[in-house]
Amino acid sequence: MSINLCRVCLATGATLPIFDKEESVLNIQANLAICLKEKVEDRDGYPRFICVVCNQILYEFCKFINKYRETCKLLEKGLDIVKEENKDDFICNEATNEEVAICSVKKDKEQNNVFETKKQQEPLKKILYVKLERLELPTKNKPSVRRCLEVSNKIASSILEGEFSWNGTEWCVSSDSIKNKVVKPKQSRNNKRKELKIPIVNIRKPKPPKLCDLCGEVFKSHERLTVHKKRAHNCERSQCKYCSKMFNASYDLKRHILRRHETKKNFVCAICGRGFAFNGELTTHHKNVHEKHLKLKKNFKCKFCSKTYKCYKSVVIHERSAHTGYRPAVCTVCDSRFFHEEYLKEHMRLHTGETPFKCPICKRGYAQRGNMKSHMKTHKKSELDEDTLRKLRPNYLKLLKT
Fold it and tell me: How far is the C-alpha of 350 from the C-alpha of 359, rounded, in Å?
């Protein structure tokens, strides 16, 4: 069974032949040539039929094109008639004196007829002129087309609204419209519209954090940064008389001596008997050691996933590194970006050359604490003295080799 496809939409069931040798009423091939402006050829393998829907659309489109062509011909004929009339006027100008006299007589008769018709329309025109005077149209400049339309519309609307009445011979102003009419005060054209000024609220943006270019420490304001530079970098360093530790300020040196080298402790814990040099250290000892079980464990949850962290800083770093990719901390030297200010502080030490983390055994300095801990794994406990082992922290002792 052969399937007839449509030449236009390739739908099955096409029954109308395009290339019909006999003269048919539809004449589909000619209609396609009119619409497409090219001859549709009968090729091997191409469909030779068209469906009913496509034929109907083709017929409507050809009908539209033929209608447009007819209107174009009518318009061209009208223009030819106007041109012929202009030629006749030109010929009339070249006429003889007798013809000019005849034309003048005809014109006089026409003017008399126009004058008589004007007399009949005078009462209505007076009323209309009164209406126009009230509108106060400017006489200096020519009124625009839009304003003329508005005037004519107002006059027509006044007739419809009953301001004028027909007495059988002419239009007159009705008595009801005069009684109900209220004179409105004229508005001066010089009065300008009042401009409303909306107050704009100035929203202050938070200032970016200030970074010390010497040690990489971050501060919230410029004032704190200047105080830090005076205390840390622009003063003479003083050494402890009991150990080799150096301090930038005498205040820090006094606190160090009281905390580490003085045997007498004024603040003693009532539970475990441990002594402290300052009251603040005793309170922190109570909270972190004896009252640790009373604290509620804070779990900071990620906004994007179900992960939880004990520290808020860890949550912030996780959200920026895993989800948002936001890097707010920018290096002022090499324009490198980091997820947190702590990473920037560690990075700045590469530019400044500062090594705050010293190995307690060989005094070798490192910019990061993790590098220093990995270095301590190279030392062995058997190679160290008892005095050096006592000075080491318990977490450092775990890193040493046996």
Answer: 18
The helix/strand/coil state of 249 is coil
Residue range 9-30, pLDDT digits in tens: 888 888 888 887 654 556 788 8
Enter the tokens of residue 117: 């018709």
Could you tell me the two tokens for 237? 């360093």
Is residue 344 classed exposed, middle or buried when 0-12, 13-18 and 19+ CB atoms within 10 A define those classes?
buried
DSSP letter (8 states) at residue 272: T
User: Is 365 in contact with 343 (CB distance < 8 Å)?
Assistant: no
Residue written as tokens 């150096």? 246
Residue 330's DSSP bridge partners are: 337
With 0-12 / 13-18 / 19 or more C-beta atoms within 10 angstroms meaning exposed / middle / buried, residue 208 is exposed
DSSP-H helix ranges across 221-298: 222-232, 250-256, 279-285
Tens of pLDDT, residues 14-72: 888 888 765 455 678 888 888 888 888 888 888 888 888 888 888 888 889 889 888 88
β-strand partners of 17? 49
How many other β-carbons are positioned within 10 Å of the β-carbon of residue 220? 12
State the burial class of residue 346 (Cβ atoms within 10 Å of its Cβ: 0-12, 13-18, 19+): middle
What kind and span of H or E run contains 329?
strand 329-330
Inter-residue contact 399 to 359 (CB < 8 Å): no
